[in-house]
Amino acid sequence: MGFDVTSGALATLRDEAARAHPHEACGILFGAGRIERAVACRNVHPEPARHFEIDPAALIAAHKAERTGGPRVAGYWHSHPSGAAEPSAEDRANTSGDGRIWAIVAGETVTLWRDAPHSFDPLPYRLVEG
User: Fold this and answer.
1) Each residue of 51-71: pLDDT tens digit?
2) Which domains does the chain have, with CATH numbers?
3) What value, to the nearest 5°, has the Cα angle with vertex 108 and ends 104 and 114?
């Protein structure tokens, strides 16, 4: 059994990661019970070729919209332009344990991870139309 991800969300992840290359791309995942949509956000980290930081204004706006009936924030995503589609040591050091989903993109490979206390747990997924 896996978590559902729409084909449109996966296409967005791959396209935005390719567009940002050689910098890291990042953004927000939306959906309730599945990943329905992925949105790219500005990477505001001063070293975007090696790190990412989702634009805080975009994060605040997404969470504010969710509280007023907008789409549910399921998690976040970022790319590893020259690495593997798995949490890096830096990613692991920055886990929050909030249970949200993280997608990591490396080339055409997209993996999902649950932000668990003190680690990231792999999250298998199924591709669904959408």
Assistant:
1) 999 999 999 999 999 999 999
2) 3-125 (3.40.140.10)
3) 20
- Helix residue ranges, H only, 32-128: 56-67, 89-93
Query: Nearest to residue 21, comparing CAs of 108, 93, 80?
Result: 80
Give the 3-state secondary structure of residue 47: coil
In this prediction, residue 88 carries a pLDDT of 93
Task: Write the pLDDT tens digit of every residue in 100-118.
Answer: 999 999 999 999 999 988 8
Sheet holding 34-35, edge to edge: 34-35, 3-6, 125-128
Q: Is the pLDDT of residue 1 over 70?
A: no
The span from the CA of 63 to the CA of 44, in Å, is 18
* Helix and strand element counts for the chain (H, E): 3, 9
Kindly list the distances between the CA atom of residue 127 and the CA atoms of 35, 79, 99, in Å, as whole numbers in the listed order.
10, 19, 21
Of the candidates 120, 122, 101, the one whose C-alpha atom is nearest the C-alpha of residue 36 is 101
- List Cα–Cα distances, 20 to 49, 62, 116, in angstroms: 9, 21, 28
- For the chain, the average pLDDT equals 95
